Amino acid sequence: MDWGMKNRLSRIIRPASGKTVMLAVDHGYFMGPTSGLEKLDEMVNPLLPYADTLMLTRGALRYYISPEVDVPITLRVSGGTSILNEEELLHEGVTCSVEDAVRLNVSCVAFSILVGAPYERDTILAFAEVIDEARAYGIPTLCVTAVGRDMVRDARYMRLASRLGAELGADIIKTYYVEDGFETVTESCPVPVVIAGGKKIPEKEALQMAHNAIAAGAVGVDMGRNIFQSESPVAMIQAVRSVVHEGASVDEAFDLYQSLKGEVKTTT
Ligand code: R5P
Prior knowledge:
The protein is of the alpha/beta class. Helices cover 44% and strands 15% of the residues. The chain has an eight-stranded parallel beta barrel, surrounded by six helices. Strands 4-5 form a two-stranded antiparallel sheet. β2 (53-56), α4 (58-64) and β3 form a beta-alpha-beta unit. It is globular, with a radius of gyration of 17 Å. The structure holds ribose-5-phosphate (R5P).
């Protein structure tokens, strides 16, 4: 692997722990102003000191984030449909060129494929082209294994989609955690795996999910709603970090969340 590629990857997956806490705030690309991200900058700025990378779209980056911040960027470069389009949900193509990603000095580009959809071929071939272009500039790619509303979320599906993304040439795979057999997903994937957070669940359950995923071989989380829709996002991201980077137990992380939540309340 070339120096530039290694350097960018090491800015995301931190060498000290081999783990990463990716903060995902790219939801607007198909959901519009998601709850918690209406004023994206106000939500994200206090979280930046605790994020190993910020995942978002080029519009959100240019309009909401100061170019002076010191956080590696994972840029979403796929899209094309909204949540209103039931028939072609997540039928994604390229929404940002690698050239513009270079201009934005990003550390990684992210693309969603939808394995199993009637239009899977479009998403897979478009991603393959992005990988070729990104590699030419030493930019790693993150494959988001999207899952359609009616599709079965089990280890068999996650294994297939994750391995497929890796065989296309992705450098990191983002998939969903499943209770039964998640270790078979990480074991059969030759590149690092991170989990998406998914819909908001109680904080302790989200910490449990992160803990289980790390125990089953994930290198981290690419978490959005379970952080920015938390009662205390700043406390939650630190609790997630303690699980991912420090190996905290769920109880320890939840205690940390509660004590930090108290502190945030008394200082505001
Ligand atoms: C979905 O495809 C987006 O890429 C989100 O970034 C991803 O789902 C992670 O966010 P959340 O933890 O809210 O699911």
